[in-house]
């Protein structure tokens, strides 16, 4: 799953920018987040490639979820 170019998350406008970088098993993109009237940049997972684990169990991560406990599937 990939993130859409512009999204509304928690009432803040978030915009995807380049560059898209790769770290072992994950593609990261910088996102501009407006918090308290100030712009900040954060790295956000855009896509997962390799096996991902949580508590030594193989999981399938989701990039976006409505609930924290739905961010991955065992």
Distance between the termini: 17 Å
Helical fraction:
under 10%
Number of domains: 1
> How many helical stretches?
0
Oligomer: single chain
Q: How much beta, percentage-wise?
A: over 45%
What sort of overall outline do the alpha carbons produce when their principal axes are compared?
flat
Give the helices and strands as they follow along the chain. EEEEEEEE
* Coarse structural class: mainly beta
Number of strands: 8
* Radius of gyration from CA coordinates: 13 Å
Mean pLDDT: 78
Which residues form runs of ≥5 with pLDDT under 50?
none
Largest sheet: 5 strands, antiparallel
What key attributes describe this structure?
5-stranded antiparallel β-sheet; 74 residues; flat; mainly beta; 3-stranded antiparallel β-sheet
Quick synopsis:
The protein has one domain (6-73). The protein has no helices and 8 strands.
Q: What does this protein look like?
A:
By secondary structure, the protein is mainly β. It is built from no helices and eight strands. The strands form two sheets. Strands 1, 2, 3, 4 and 5 form a five-stranded antiparallel β-sheet that branches. The model has no long low-confidence stretch (mean pLDDT 78).
Write the topology of this structure:
Blueprint: E1 6-9, E2 12-16, E3 21-23, E4 26-35, E5 38-48, E6 52-54, E7 57-61, E8 72-73
Antiparallel strand pairs: 1-2, 2-4, 3-4, 4-5, 6-7, 7-8
């Amino acid at each position: 799953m990939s993130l859409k170019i512009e999204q509304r998350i928690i009432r803040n406008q978030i915009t995807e920018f380049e560059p898209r970088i790769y770290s072992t098993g994950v593609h990261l993109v910088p996102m501009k987040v407006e918090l308290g009237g100030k712009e900040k940049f954060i790295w956000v997972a855009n896509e997962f490639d390799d096996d991902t684990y949580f508590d030594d169990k193989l999981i399938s991560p989701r990039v976006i979820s409505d609930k924290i406990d739905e961010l991955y599937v065992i």
